[in-house]
Amino acid sequence: MQEAKHEIERKTLEERHQMSDLERLRHSCAHVLAAAVLRIWPDAKLDIGPPTDEGFYYDFDLEHRFTPDDFERIEAEMKKVAKENQVFERSEMTREKAITHYENSGQKYKVERVNDIPEGETITFHRNGEFLDLCAGPHVPRTGNVKAFKLLRLAAAYYRGNENNPQLQRIYGTAFKNKTQLNEWLEAQEEARKRDHRKIGREQGLFTLSPMVGQGLVLWMPKGGIVRTELQNFMQSELMGRGYSPVFTP
């Protein structure tokens, strides 16, 4: 399981209201994911589930350790939630009532998130079916609008991005307006993976990486050394041919 580097910063109410239609859809899909996980693992503790540039994620704390083998089961439950066409209903609570609600349901991370909300700001929830989440929105009208989604990968994420806090399990996913757009995006991602220089370099024996040397520092293998030398010679020839003169500094 990879480690997530940070969590998404909390959006202001104004920023939330400016969400694009796609961001609203993905935000709603994060709620569908959380609802599905709670149906399967009722003891799961929830943190946050925002939209991201590529889709969405939700952070969970539970004894069961997620693996990619769980995705099919979770996605099947998500499809049930979507098929039920539940309405996303907005409601408000006082700070005291919200804290009591989450304390009674054992959702300790949500209690802290309620306490994060500035004094004077309305504390809002969104319900779809039996699932109620602390959330300012916005969302699509119904879970039935969430029709094309895919769970992508897992990551470990420290609560609030602090390594001194508990390590949560983060499920990443993506969602689009329809299956055609989803499939096109998935195909583009697969093509990008095939062209990833790390994959090509490893498969062709050009270079290797070692944590003993340092993250991102390349150790050139013989084949890679030849390619690098040829490229350097080509660049030097082009520079000299265009009238550049080499300068060396300490």
From TrEMBL:
It is an enzyme of class 6 (ligase). One of its GO terms (biological process) is threonyl-tRNA aminoacylation. One of its GO terms (molecular function) is ATP binding. It catalyses: tRNA(Thr) + L-threonine + ATP = L-threonyl-tRNA(Thr) + AMP + diphosphate + H(+). Its EC number is 6.1.1.3. InterPro entries: aa-tRNA-synth_II/BPL/LPL, Thr/Ala-tRNA-synth_IIc_edit, tRNA_SAD. Residues 123-172 form the Threonyl/alanyl tRNA synthetase SAD domain. Keywords: Aminoacyl-tRNA synthetase, ATP-binding, Ligase, Nucleotide-binding, Protein biosynthesis. Signal peptide: none annotated. Pfam families: tRNA_SAD. Belongs to the class-II aminoacyl-tRNA synthetase family. This is threonine--tRNA ligase. The lineage of its organism: unclassified sequences, metagenomes, ecological metagenomes.
